[in-house]
Amino acid sequence: MKHYRLMLCTLLLTAIAWGQHTTLPEGFTKTDRSKLNINQGWKFHLGDPDADFFKLDTDDSNWETVNVPHGLELTTMDLNGVQDDKYQDTFMRKVGWYRKEIQVSENTNNKVFLEFEGVHQVTDVWVNGKHVGQHAIGGYTPFHFDITDFVNRGEKNLVTVLADNRKRDDIPPDPGPMDYIKFAGLYRDVYLVETNPLHITFNWEAENAGQYITTPTVDPVNLNATINIKTTVRNENIQSKKTTVLSRVIDAKGLVVLKLKQTKTIPAGADVQFNLIGSIEDNLKLWSINEPKLYRVHTLVLEDGKAVDQVEVKTGFRKIEMNNHDGIVLNGKPIKLIGTNLHQHYGFIGDAMPNSLHYKDILQLKKLGMNVIRTAHYPHDNSLLEACDELGMLVYEEAPTWMSIGNEAWFDNFEKAARTMVRNHRNHTSVFIWGAGINHRGYVPRSHNVIKQEDPFRYTASQSSRWTGWQTSGLTDIYGQMVYGPYYWSGDEPMLAMEGRRGPEAINEYMNSPMKLGLISWTAHAYYTFHPTDTPKDRSRGGFMTAFRYPRPEENLAWYPAELTDYPYLHIVSDWNEDTKEVVIFSNSEKVQLKVNGKTIAEEHPSRADKYKYLKHAPFVFSISKYEKGTLTANGLLDGKIVVSKTTKTPEEAYRIILEPDMEGRKFVADGSDILVAYAKIVDKNGILLGDADIAVEFSVKGDAKIIGDKEGIGSNPMQTEYGVAPVLIRAGNSLGR
Prior knowledge:
There is one protein chain. By secondary structure, the protein is mostly beta strands. It has five domains: 2-11 and 667-732, Immunoglobulins (Immunoglobulin-like, Sandwich); 34-195, Galactose-binding domain-like (Jelly Rolls); 204-315, Sandwich (Immunoglobulin-like), CATH 2.60.40; 320-555, Glycosidases (TIM Barrel); 560-649, Immunoglobulin-like. The protein has six helices and 48 strands. Strand 18 (295-303) and strand 19 (306-315) form a beta hairpin. Helix 3 (408-425) runs parallel beside helix 4 (445-454).
């Protein structure tokens, strides 16, 4: 095995400045509301669950300084050598203490809150040494604490967080078993929020809380729609307040296309919901998977005519229907659901992914032509849902479970998690199915009922499998089945393969009937698991891609753009060497012409094999009777003309390393938390990737950035190649590159 060194120069680390405060979007009015990201500069201590580190006199000078998102520990690819089974009794079953000083405004009238997007899995919070509260529903849903009475105005205040990931039989997805790892730590964004005493509540507080936006009618023919904006305002003053809620619907050009207003008097200490409804009658822009047009709903709260609070939500107008004749119909056009399941695991960092990597996950799948994801097996990060809205990806989201059903306390928390999931994400246009079952077990009446109570407009789906007996949609709207072979289906209602195999053969099985709604393959990326394995050095499992988001060549991921996109596309699957007996090409061309060293050796139509009979663009398969060293060229033909062309060559000896930072569709932000992934590719002198290269690549970096896991013995640096590629994760510092 060869060992190479590679330096990442500061050019790769050029970042943009990023303030700590959330800036006001265009059109916002100055009010008392502020939302400050407080991800940076936490003091961290691992262990000692019974300690009193919340006390003001605790000496944390020797604690590690970390930024959020943060996991309690990094992990090797073999999960630090731990030999747990699927119940995960020991791995990451630890606690982490986090301490940070925060500054609140001098405005003694303001309310002050701490908002957490997600912490694994029981969270206790203290402010200035006093216990504020505990959140014990689980690690995959947001929560907040009112710290108004605990802070000193205009001064620094000490926040202490205990993130407790020890096993609890009453908190799903525990007690297990689980096919995935429940990681640990303060792994999603944290905010300091200040508001006027007259303010819009948090969405997850109650059934009627925060803001709930629906579109009761959408007409894709005449391009008009009705929008209903429900906004709950709380009055925490000691006297009643005459309150006006003003909502504006704003298009992509910044034009106000609808303005709605309502005035009510809110008694002291009361919550009142404002229910506004209106219509857009002309020039409506629809949200679709190909053109995900979004509007901004900006809502202003006025007290006696003075603006005191505001929120803004992005929303879209789309109509989704289902029937036995067309399957799923989006804005009047039938679509086949083709996509993948998605875990939030990432190599080395587990769940602690910055927002940029969540966005990259969706962008990568969208570029392949996929149109749906399922969030296996828990609610995912807000930034992932925002990416789905912006990029045009439909979402099937479910509450945290896998297979087990616990006691009554477990079910209570499962219900609370499901309700919070819906309240938190129901304004996202991309969400169109809520999972209303328990994976493998099928639909669960209690889950379906509470989800419908929270959101009667979207579909629910069962989560069935043949090994748990005959299943149908039951109470749910859609029969969701795990399809890894024979499956139970009566054929008299639509069926969605919410899990299943990957590649053209698997997709072919869902193209012959609109009653087969589509296939959400298992799974996008390799995910960490204590599933039994023959390769204990790597406990990540499955996936179109590795845990570092590099495509696995054997999974035929490169075929999907041929079937699912319209631009001229061609990909040479096969290597060109003396062992080549067959060349496979993925393309959406009419025919493919194959040349060797400039000489045409064959032209073929797509394969007519039965296993591809229902596909629009089956693979092209060429039998090679005589190999000739040199250049292989594949030309995609349409009406006899070349519309796309690709070449490859006979591979030679390893010659150099090409470093490719994954900067597409993103910026690398100097906020101390952002992560950039780069791939070191081993190529020959012609630039041909050597997929069988067995090389360890050592990385170094200059500038204010760090290689994750560097010198920590987790196997991240040097990094062994897989498929001829060695990935590296680079965490940004806080200063700009040059």
